[in-house]
From TrEMBL:
Gene3D superfamilies given in the database record: Rubisco LSMT, substrate-binding domain (3.90.1420.10), set domain protein methyltransferase, domain 1 (3.90.1410.10)
CDD domains tied to this protein: SET_LSMT
Name recorded for this polypeptide: SET domain-containing protein
Keyword annotations of the record: Methyltransferase, S-adenosyl-L-methionine, Transferase
Lineage of source species: Eukaryota, Viridiplantae, Streptophyta, Embryophyta, Tracheophyta
Organism: Linum tenue
Length: 512
């Protein structure tokens, strides 16, 4: 174990030295300090481990101020399709010979081609830093997918898997033509490459697939808007650094100082490629104390989005939404787009959902005259509000009853999964297996090739294959647990609304 950690540290040091040679730096523009250093970090950022927020990430090497430029990754260090094809005429002619490939497929083929070169690749120090496995939905097995329980989520996973399979079949032709070794043209390799691209690329204007950005891709995620509830309260970030660069917002490089940026913070984006500096630039979204993790807002995502594209979810996600099945009658009466009809993270119905319910429970004779009130979000009457809340509560109860496990069962399951994940002693795993056979049986049934003997099952539960699957199973259970919590909170919200009206009526009853 120690030997492995030492090896990883050594690889990281070599990578940071390699990046420094390419001009990657966390020093201010025009600073000479980096010239004496064989590492690209240390002035503003350090690589650290944040077990509860993304694992490896970048911490503040000193106190940082909101808007400070904290990292520059020059174009020469960006892993893009154009660069890779430009460096390799054979690769270029093969990839360009398949014009139907999407930008992501093209980048995927380039990345697998480079991986296939192993140590001979110029990019090897960087490639060694990429994760070996991912937990994105496209990598979920049938069992892990079904563990999501909610139809919408299972379907999202199914679509992600089907998309990866389709893209792989198309890309396989060019990978065969380039004589990739079987390991690098397998479906497993393709899901790895898709997850790498989906979770690590950054937006550039010249390629829809984006760019891999060495060192820049060490930043972990915090949802946009969180910084305003943190230290400073005033910074509005735009949607995502995947979307827009600072210069796209019209800021010239000579303004790239904290002071210059502050006047532009209303349209603040924490990262983007800047033509003037020919570099990908990263900015502090808020003030940071030395040692704190410096985070980026990759975009505004629900937990299912995060799981699909990045393979993780947030315990507290203000952008979380829960969609509940509603009969077509409710949906067809309004013109709200379907994706605006959901429950917020705190269980309250979205504006569109509440309006749709108010309209649905109103009498057909009334509907024409109240339409403008419905669209403006007004309450229509006490009865209407109570009926809308009753209907929503009923729908939520139906959803919870239709799911195979309760939140309490999910909590127990999560604690069992965590205990197995933490164990490395066969005797302890054996005991846990005896105590929680019921909970674990679905997981074991999901691994069809497993021998029935107790000691073989224990051996399997301690294997890296089981650990990877346990990690995905846990994510699926955490996701459905969060979904059920929102539904339960919505039931409480509806009860409060209904009780609020009866309480008002009691107060208003005139004295006899
Ligand atoms: C761009 S990379 C960030 C660096 C990554 N931790 C690494 O070691 O290379 C994005 C990945 O980091 C992890 N990650 C980022 N932010 C996270 C967070 N807030 N919580 C958990 N995992 C996170 C996810 O695995 C995600 O796919």
């Amino acid at each position: 174990m120690e030997e492995e950690a030492r090896r990883e540290d050594h690889h990281l040091d070599s990578f940071l030295a390699w990046a420094a040679e390419l001009g990657v730096t966390d020093s201010p523009c025009n600073s000479m300090s980096q010239q004496n250093s064989n590492r690209c970090l240390g002035n503003s950022l350090v690589v650290s481990h944040f077990p509860d927020a993304g694992g490896r990430g970048l911490g503040a090497a000193r106190d940082l101020r909101k808007g400070e430029l904290v990292l520059r990754v020059p174009k020469a260090a960006l892993f893009t399709t154009i660069r890779l094809l430009g460096d390799d005429p054979k690769l270029s002619s093969a990839v360009n010979g398949h014009p139907s490939l999407s930008p992501t497929q093209r980048l995927g083929v380039c990345l697998l081609h480079e991986m296939g070169k192993g140590r001979d690749s110029w990019w090897w120090p960087y490639l060694k830093q990429l994760p070996r496995g991912y937990d994105t939905l496209a990598t979920f097995s049938e069992f892990e997918k079904q563990a999501l329980q909610v139809d919408d989520a299972v379907w999202t996973a199914e679509k992600a898997i089907l998309k990866a399979k389709m893209e792989w079949r198309q890309a396989k032709l060019v990978m065969e033509q380039l004589q990739f070794k079987p390991k690098f043209r397998s479906f497993g390799a393709w899901t790895w490459v898709c997850a790498t691209i989906s979770s690590r690329t950054m937006h550039v204007s010249w390629d829809e697939a984006g760019t891999l950005c060495p060192v820049g891709d060490f930043f972990n995620y915090a949802a946009p808007g969180e910084e305003s509830s943190g230290l400073d309260g005033g910074c509005h970030t735009s949607e995502s650094f995947l979307e827009d660069g600072l210069l796209a917002n019209g800021i010239a490089s000579d303004q790239l100082t904290t002071k210059g940026l502050n006047s532009h913070l209303d349209s603040f984006v924490d990262a983007g490629f800047e033509d003037h500096l020919a570099a990908y630039c990263f900015y502090a979204r808020r003030d940071y104390k030395k040692g704190e993790q410096v985070l980026l807002a990759y975009g505004t995502y629900t937990n299912l989005d995060l799981l699909e594209h990045y393979g993780f979810l947030l315990a507290k996600n203000l952008n979380e939404k829960a969609f509940i099945p509603l009969e077509p009658g409710i949906l067809s009466l309004t013109s709200w787009p379907q994706d605006s009809i959901y429950l917020h993270a705190d269980g309250k119905p979205s504006f569109a959902l509440l309006s749709a319910l108010r309209f649905y429970v109103s009498s057909p004779q009334q509907r024409r005259s109240i339409l403008h009130l419905v669209y403006s979000g007004s309450q229509l009457s006490e009865d209407n509000e109570i009926n809308a809340s009753r209907l929503l509560s009923k729908k939520c109860h139906e959803v919870l009853q239709s799911l195979p496990t309760t939140t309490e069962e999910d909590d127990l399951l999560l604690s069992v999964i965590e205990r197995i994940q933490d164990m490395n002693c066969p005797v302890e795993v054996g005991k846990l297996l005896c105590s929680f056979r019921g909970e674990i049986s679905a997981f074991l049934d999901g691994h069809k090739d497993l021998p029935a003997a107790h000691d073989k099952i224990v051996e399997f539960l301690l294997s890296s294959r089981a650990k990877s699957s346990l990690g995905k199973w846990k994510l699926a259970v955490q996701w459905r647990r969060g979904y059920k919590q929102i539904i339960a909170d919505c039931i409480c919200f509806c009860t409060e609304v209904i009780e609020g009206f009866s309480h008002q009526n009691e107060v208003n009853i005139p004295e006899p």
